[in-house]
Amino acid sequence: MSEKKSSLLMHSCCAPCSSAVLERLADNFDITIYYYNPNIDTPLEFMRRAEELSKLDKLGIKYDVIIEEYISSEYDEAVKGLENLGEGSQRCYECYKLRLRKTAEFASKNGYKCFTTTLSVSPYKKVEWLHDIGRELEKEFGIKYLDEDFKKQGGYQRSLELSKDLKLYRQNYCGCVYSKAELIARRHCEKPKATKQSSTDMNHELRRTNNASITSGSPRCARDDATKRSKR
Length: 232
Description:
- The radius of gyration is 17 Å and the shape is globular.
- Helix 1 crosses helix 6 (155-166) and helix 4 runs parallel beside helix 5 (127-141).
- A six-stranded mixed beta sheet has the order 5-4-1-2-3-6, with helices on both faces.
- The protein has a single domain (6-171, 219-231), classed as Rossmann fold (3-Layer(aba) Sandwich), CATH 3.40.50.620.
- The longest helix has 20 residues, at 90-109.
- The chain has eight helices and six strands.
- 46% of the residues lie in helices and 11% in strands.
- The chain has helices at 15-25, 43-52, 72-78, 90-109, 127-141, 155-166, 177-187, 196-215; strands at residues 6-11, 29-35, 64-67, 114-117, 144-145, 230-231.
- It is of the alpha/beta class.
């Protein structure tokens, strides 16, 4: 008789990063993908990334999915006063903390044995920050944080391969309106134009426009309650 696997709540930033982590951990854990990303700049981008997770079915791995409601104000509040800082700054640290805290809290309340995040797959994320935050939350919530650096042992390269095989959408910015502004600036060799005021105005306008698109027929991609899961 096979030993029962430990239940793992795996915070997912996107399908490409999740693919390699899901593949690596599937033999040892009963995995639930937890998609909580209020940092994403628009509802349409949020839904696009969420819907890509369904393509992971092609891996032939059993997993569940929880899509949290998109509440962008949670991110706005977390990075308030840090808007003008660049990529890899304290703004990003607060974003990591926001998403990991929500994951740890949900895992603790719903009986998971451990939690982790796919963010460490990316070579652009500071894994030492992720692990520092995760270990502190482990102490606070009394639930094990799986402190692996998933980019190691070819993890990042594997995510690229699986993205190609599964035809996954690979975004070219982390998700927030500030990283998008920095991407555009790099392409034009300019300074980022997402100042505190302009980025806030742009963010609100994008959200207003795309919310109108959602109400006019786009599929809703959010959980209805804290325990609802989409079986895979």
